[in-house]
Fold this protein.
Amino acid sequence: MKKNEPIVCLTDRCGQRCLYCSRAGYDPTYSPSRIRRRIRAFRDSICIEGGEPTMAPDLLKWVRYAKTRGTRDIILVSNGFRLERPEFVRSLLDAGVTTFNVQLPAHNARLFDLVTQTRGCFRTRLAAVRNLIETAGRTRVRLTHVVNSVTYRFLPQYAAFLAERFPGILYVELNMVKVLGAVKGRTWLVPRLSDLAPKLLEAFEVLGRGGVQFLTDGFPLCAIPGYEYRSIDTFKLAHSGGRLYLNEKVSGPACSGCTLRRICPGLRSDYAGLYGTGELKASRRDPGPMIRKAFHQLWEKPSGPEGRRCGRG
């Protein structure tokens, strides 16, 4: 874990074994002293993670601590365990949680069971998201989906499912799978950009028609034409000057002649290690409208990109 990440890991326990888990293979649990230091260091936002943080017996204590320290945005990153219970969600809200980031890896039980290596948990996960919407409110709920070789073909169906079941949520974040944790031994989970891009763009169109806000991470801008303003890194480069996590990205020879290179860090370096940079293409599009659209249409929302890196996978 990098020192400049606004993340607190409370436990290594988890009730699922996601094929693409970026935390697999090491113990991420922080000591109490490290948790205190991390909370004091990040007053703007903090992400409480695990493992599964709702399995940590001291979860409420640390949420309260962050609140008393004046942390503005306290984000709980969860697989939904126990969040189908209204009284538990209310206790988290009372303690100080401002945003719930729930991983939703699939739109049906078969795919869900396959990627999480569980059985019969899909309905409970949906119940958790519904309860969060009803108890905490739609604008406190964001979803995370890790794009991988098992599920990318179904991205348009996934998008339609979200538009039907959960319209009005804060947003869904679609992240390219990382070659970390479990994926180091399962690199087949990393799809080629040229294969997944058509499905990704189709999903974007479905989400847009359905009124579901969405962000992306790990996809170079040349792979998402027309949706460049949805990239998290684009916002960070264009507006905040932040370099956090951009060292995970690399450019290729085609990028030297690209008009978007100022707002696009390229593709993930672990992806380039597998497949190279030959899929990158130089764009001739004007970055100005993309920057303005990103700022005015998407980012002026609570729990915006300042808390963006919270989420596993």
The longest helix spans residues 193-209. The first strand starts at residue 7 and ends at 9. Residues 1-217 form a domain with the TIM Barrel fold (CATH 3.20.20.70).
